[in-house]
């Protein structure tokens, strides 16, 4: 698989955005976050880890996007399809791109409206004080982007799906080797380090996300850092990873019983796999996110109080729709989502299972290697 | 080293913020980002990788901070010193914490002003539409936080410095093993994977940041992803990592010559080490960030056009001051910074060197193992 995408990919995305901008009466869309800027340019760097510099991309009503970025990024942005790259030497305390951005917006969007992603999962990656300065300097109307960017990103191209599929396969090979690193007596902190190592050995570029838990019959929490406590016989250990290849995530988990599996854990796991199959059955073009949620909730129980049981996936660990009772997004071919049912296995323990799928016209296709109903013992 | 901090650490941070809030006339500070919320609570999770849910922390004029967070985080937040934890089931499309947050702000800050971090390096991690709803529902005055949070975070406690020192030592051991993974013929992509593996083997919790480059006499860019091209004899390879232990970063690099070092590379490296020593000499309590920058710039040349040559370091890869000609922040004991001079080694190549230090009353103390003037050949 080659790095990045052909220019046609970005042309298609930009043209699609511009068609919707025209309908919505937006003269430009202003982007400030990593996935949004990368979506329209292919600009891929881990340098976003530094909060010190703001980055801007303007999608005008027609033509290629225009980058307004710190000069340290000019060489890399110059390798993308973007031609118009305007830079300043950041960080610049007195004017950190404010004047340059305002002038570019005025030039490109004239008297029109500027749309900013403003809905669920979005944020503005620049200081609030500078945002107010940009608005004042540009003297234009700023509004939300009508959800255009988020909506476009929800449906993946074949080339995007290929990347997600590749990282899912890498994670599958790493999960297949968990027996090498986890056993009674090993602390979960060590398992976390070693599992990230396995992901890298199997070909991941990096591992932005790893969570998990381990306790008797299940675990109490799926977002805490790993504990230094050693694994014990009868623990159920879960590892959930968001590893990345060429800027695209997998996000799925696996459960393992340490040395032996309790009845509660075996039953919990079988129930989760049953729910996953029900989710798969429901995940058809035209179904709503809430329908897929209900198919799984009917099996794991809990009713409306049960939280989300899956979500979209792609350039971010979670993005787009949520499988909840309240998200009625219609599934379309090309959407990549996770199925993530959870089930209580004791008064203070639960188990969670997760798979990654792509919605196709003929039905869902598994990107992660579907787990069997039998809880693996290692 | 134990995980996390004793409660006294958070009490001290909160009391210090509240003293400054009193002087500034702020009735509360509202926080939305990972490092800011962790600074006042110790709430540490990689779950922030998901953008789907907003998280809020209110620092009131007195007493402990109050968390307004998705219910999925309640158990973990319950392990911190925070007592007042208000939750909702997120994501909730109709009201994703807006009403709950507005009510908490009204209750805790009455008719007073709410400060938000709004200056350099800050951003608001919530949808803009919801921010407008919170402002309308709370009916209070929102303003910047007078830089209180950023200013406090710039000076590290002994316990914070211990964590940064520990991750610097881990990275030092990994850099010491680069000869195991890099040689002529190995692609830089593979070196990147293997170096992350070495960092994990040596004890890093995870590796949020790795950049680098490799080319004859130097490299053209320090933020691009690794290339698939194999290393060649005479390449200068640089690896720059931000690895994390217990939520604290190191951020430094090392240069290596592959098989043999050219004169240009040797001279460049020696110049960088000379500049680093000059930076060390200048990095004293009472000096300005710009003084340290100038000490290094005088050796590597380039004048005002030379970009930043170091920055603060801690819970984020880069935070706080910048070593530039325009940042006149006064160095204080307890500040942890990087010294990061760069030098041109050819028409399109450069080299960059970086070390991590803590400013102490008696002078700077190295946290990374200071490189020698001789460019290592592997």
What does this protein look like?
The structure is a homodimer. A six-stranded mixed beta sheet of chain A has the order 4-3-2-1-5-6, sandwiched between helices. In chain A, strands 7, 8, 9 and 10 form a four-stranded antiparallel beta sheet that branches. Chain A is built from ten helices and 15 strands. Chain A is of the alpha+beta class and about 375 residues long. In chain A, helix 4 crosses helix 5. The first copy, chain A, has helices at about 5-25, 35-40, 75, 100-110, 130-140, 150-155, 160-175, 190-200, 265-280, 290-300, and strands at about 25-30, 55-60, 65-70, 85-90, 115, 140-145, 205-215, 235-245, 250, 250-255, 335-340, 340-345, 350, 355-360, 365. The relative contact order of chain A is 0.11. The first copy, chain A, has two domains: about 5-150, Creatinase/prolidase N-terminal domain (Creatine Amidinohydrolase, Chain A, domain 1, 3-Layer(aba) Sandwich), CATH 3.40.350.10; about 160-365, Creatine Amidinohydrolase (Alpha-Beta Complex), CATH 3.90.230. Chains A and B meet through helix 8 and strand 7 of A and helix 8 and strand 7 of B.
């Amino acid at each position: 698989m080659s790095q990045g995408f052909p220019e046609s990919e970005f042309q298609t995305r930009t043209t699609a955005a511009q068609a919707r901008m025209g309908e919505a009466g937006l003269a430009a869309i202003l982007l400030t976050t990593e996935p949004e800027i990368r979506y329209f340019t292919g600009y891929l760097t881990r340098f976003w880890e530094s909060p010190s510099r703001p980055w801007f991309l303007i999608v005008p009503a027609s033509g290629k996007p225009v980058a307004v970025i710190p000069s340290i990024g000019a060489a890399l942005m110059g390798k993308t399809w973007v031609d118009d790259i305007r830079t300043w030497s950041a960080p610049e305390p007195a004017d950190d791109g404010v004047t340059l951005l305002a002038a570019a917006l005025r030039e490109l969007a004239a008297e029109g409206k500027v749309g900013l992603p403003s809905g669920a999962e979005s944020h503005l990656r620049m200081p609030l004080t500078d945002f107010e300065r940009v608005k004042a300097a540009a003297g234009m109307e700023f509004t939300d982007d009508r959800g255009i960017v988020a909506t476009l990103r929800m449906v993946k191209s074949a080339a995007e799906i290929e990347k997600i599929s590749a990282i899912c396969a890498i994670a599958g090979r790493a999960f297949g080797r968990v027996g090498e690193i986890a056993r009674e007596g090993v602390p979960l902190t060590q398992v976390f380090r070693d599992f990230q190592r396995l992901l890298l050995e199997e070909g991941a570029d990096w591992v932005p996300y790893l969570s998990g838990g381990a306790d008797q019959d299940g675990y109490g929490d799926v977002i805490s850092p790993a504990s230094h406590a050693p694994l014990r016989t009868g623990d159920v250990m879960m590892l959930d990873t968001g590893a990345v290849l060429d800027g695209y995530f997998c996000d799925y988990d696996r459960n393992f019983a340490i040395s032996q599996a309790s009845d509660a854990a075996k039953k919990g796991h079988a129930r989760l796999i049953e729910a996953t199959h029900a989710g798969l059955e429901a995940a058809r073009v035209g179904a709503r996110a809430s329908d897929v949620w209900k198919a799984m909730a009917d099996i794991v129980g809990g009713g409306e109080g049960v939280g989300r049981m899956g979500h979209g996936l792609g350039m971010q660990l979670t993005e787009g729709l949520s499988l909840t009772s309240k998200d009625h997004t219609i599934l379309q071919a090309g959407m990549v989502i996770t199925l993530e049912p959870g089930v209580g296995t004791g008064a203070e323990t639960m188990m969670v299972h997760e798979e990654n799928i792509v919605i196709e016209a003929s039905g869902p296709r598994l990107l992660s290697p579907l787990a069997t109903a039998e809880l693996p013992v290692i």
